[in-house]
Amino acid sequence: MKRNDFFALLCLIISFLTNAQVANAPCNNYSEWTSNTYSMSVVSQTGLFGDSWSNKNNLIDGNTGNAASWSAILLGSSWIEARNASGSVFPAGSYAGFVVGDLDLVSLGASMKVATYNGTTKQEEVNFSSLVGTILDGGGKRKVGFVTTKAFNRIRLTVNAGLTLVFTANAYYAEVVKPCAGAALACNTTTDITRTNYGTIVEPSRTGMSGLSLGSVSNADNVANANVSDFATITINAGVAASGSISVRDIGDTFPAGTYAGFDVENQSLINAQFFNNITLKSYNKGILQETVSGSNLLMGLGSDAIASTGRSVVGFLTTKAFDELQITVNSLATLNIGNTKVYKMIAMKPCQKTISCNSSYYLTQPDFPVVLNSQRTGLGTLACIGCSVNSADNVIDNNPDNYSRITLAAGVGNTGSISVMDPTATYPKGTYTGFTVKDRYFVYQGDFLEYITIKTYLNGVLQESKTSNELFDLSFFIPIWGTGTKNVGFYTTKDFNEVQIQTGSIGSVVNVLDIYSAFIDTRSSNGGSLNCVQAIAAADDSYTINVGGTSTASVITNDTYQGNPATLGASGNVVLTQNSGENNGITINSNTGLVTVSANTAAGTYPVTYTICNNVTPPSCDFATVNVVVAANSVNAQDDVLTIPDGTTSSVNVLLNDTVNGLQALLGNLLLTQVSTSNPGITLNTLTGNVSVASGTAPGTYQIVYQAATLLGGNSDTATVTVIVPGIPPAADIKVNISASSSNYTFGSPMQIFYEVKNIGNAPTDGSEIVIYIYKTVSGTTFNYSSLPTGWTLKSQTAEYYAFSTTKVIGQNNSDTIMVEFTANDTNLDFTLFRSLVSSGSGGEINILNNISTQILFPDQY
Fold it and tell me: What is the pLDDT of residue 235?
C-alpha cells in the first residue's frame, strides 16, 4: 500500500469513528460527556498561580458524583471546558450544558456562562446571572444549559465570583441531548410528552421563581422524565405575592397549531374553579413567545383524577400557533395561600373532529370526540362549601360506561357544582338534543330532582341557552343509558353550540349527591351546517309544577318545532294546538297560547295531559306530546331580605317583592302581613305597605325584623327575616403596631434597639378588654431580649419563636405605648433580618383586622 493511500484510509477510519460517536448518542435523553461514552479531554484556565481548577479530570471521568472545583477570588473569573477529543460535532438543535453545584448566585453577586465552540471558534453563549431560573434535581445540583442553534464539539463553563470571598464552584460533568423526532400524536388521546419518546428537557431560562422569590421550584426535571409517578413541586409561601414557573421544551419536534397542550397538575385549590385564575400557560417556538392563556380560557383534558379530593387536573388550551415549548406559571397574591402545586407531565393531544350523522345519538367522550372540560365552568361555585366536592370530573369524557363523576353538595342554600364539556373542533346546530346521563342518589328524598339541575349551552364561551326544572325532560327512549337507574336529562336547543354544562344546586335540608356519566347529543332534529335532520313537525313532552289556581309561565310549544324552526301559535302562527285528554278536567291548555291553567278547586297531585300540534296545510302533518302537570298544594313562601336604610328614612323596597302565594307574586291583597319581632324598637315594618322605617338617631349597625305572611283563608303561613343595615361607621378602637429601629442598619455583634409602637388609630378608646401583641423573634444566630415594659403591660407567654405581651389598660384615640427590645446579630452570614408583630384579633374591642400584621426588614451595614 502506498503511503498516501495509507493516510487516506486512516483519515477515513478516524472520520467514521468520529461520526459514529454522534450517531450512537442516545436520542432524546441526557448523555454525559464522560470518558465512559466519548473520547473526552478537559481544559481549564491557568493563571499566575497555575491551574485555577482542582480535580479537573473529575469533569470527564465516569463518576458523575464527583466534581471539578474552583475557589473564588474577589472579582475573579475562571473557566473549564469539556472537549470531545475525537472532534465529533453535535448538530444544531442539540442541548448543551453542565450539571453544577446548587449555588445561590443572586445573593453572592456571582454568575455563570455556558458557551459552545466548534474547534477554537466560539459558537454561542448564554449568561446565567441568577440560578433562580434553573432546574433543581433534588440532590443539591442544578442544570445550566441551552438549546443550540449551531454545531459544536466543546462546551465551556465560565464562573464569575463577583464580590464574594467565600465561594466554591463545582462542575460535575457536561451533558448533551441529541434531538430526534417523536411519535405523531394520536387523535383525541392525551399523550405525556416525556423523554425518551420525545426530546423533552426543562428549559432553565424559563423555570424558577419570580416576585419576592419566597418559595421554590423543586425536582423540575421530573416533569420531563418518563416516570409517570414523578412530579415537580412549585411552592409559594403563604401570604407572599410571587409566582413559580416550569417550562418544558421538545427539542426534537414542533407541534402544529390546533394541538391541545397543557400540564397534569395537582393542588388542593383546584377543587374550586376560581383557582384557574391563578394559572397561566405560555407557548414558545424556538424560544419566541407564541401565545399566553389563563383563567377562563383554560380547558381541562383527560387522564387524571380531575378536581377530586386531591385536586388533580389536566389544565391546557387549544393552540392557534405552532410550538415546541410550553410553560406553566402558578401565580399567588399576598392574600391567598396557594401552597404546593405538583406538576406531573406536559400533555398534548391532536383534536380530530368527529363526523356525525342525522338520526343518531352520541356520547361526547374521548377518543371518538376531541372533548375537554372547561375549567371555568367545572367545579364548585364557592370555596366556602364545607363537605362539597366535584370528584373525577374527567370520567365524564372517558369512554368507560361504568365511570362517572360525583357532585356532592352539603345541605344549605346557594352551593353549586358544575361540569362543562367542550368540543373545540365542531359547532353543533340548533335542534340538537343535548344534555347529560345522570343518576340522582337521593331521589327518594328530593322528589323531582330536576328542580335542582340546570343544563346550559355555550358557543365559543358565550352563553346560548339555559334550561332547568320543567324545561328539561328525559329522552332515554332514543339514547342508550349508561349505568343502572340513570336518566338522559336535556333539552332541544334553539341555537348552535359547542359546549354543554350541567349544574346542580344544594338542597335546604339534605345532602345533594348527583352522579354524572357523560354528555350526549341526539341529531334527530338537528338543522344546520351539514345536518338537515328535522321532522316536518315535532312536539316534545313537558313537565310543569303549577300551584292551585295558577298558570304555567311557559307554553307547551316552547320546545316544539315545525320544519326546524320554533313552533308558533295564533293568527300568524305555523301550527294549531288541540288538547286531547287529561285525567282532571280542571287542567286545561290554552290553544292560543299553549299555557297550562289549574283551576282553584283542583286537588294536589300529578296529572298527565296530552295535546296535538298540526300545521295549516292539507293534508296536515301532526305530532302529539304529553304534559306532566304536578299540582302543588295551597302555599305561601316568604323569602329573607337585606335592606340598607339610612336613619330617619323608609325603604323604597317592599319586603313582599320576592315572596309568593301559590307560586304567584305576593301582594297585600292576597295575604295578611304581621310583624313578629324587631331587634330595635326604632326599626319597624308597616304591615299595610310592606315597607321598613328607621327612626332618626338610630345608631349605625345591623338589625333584624321577623315578619309572617299568611294566606287570607288561613291554614298556611311562612316567616322571613329582614336584615336592616343602618349605614355609618360605628365607634371602635383599632390597634396597629409600628416597627422602627435605633439605626437603619445593624452591625454584627453590636446591640441595637427595636421599637414596637402600639397605637390606637381608631375612632374610640379601647374598651378595657385584653390587648395581646405578638413580637416574633428573628432567625438563629441572633439574640432578642427586653428589659422593661410600659406601665400596665406584662409578659403573657413566650416560645422559641415569639414573645406575647398583654395589657387591659384603656388606650385613648391616637394614644400609644412603646415596647422596646434589644437585638444583636452574631452570625455574619445573615443577609437581612425580618422583624414582625401581630395584633391578636379583637384586642381592646377593635373590629378592623386588616392592619394587624406589621413587618420591618433591616440589613447589616456590611450588606
Answer: 86
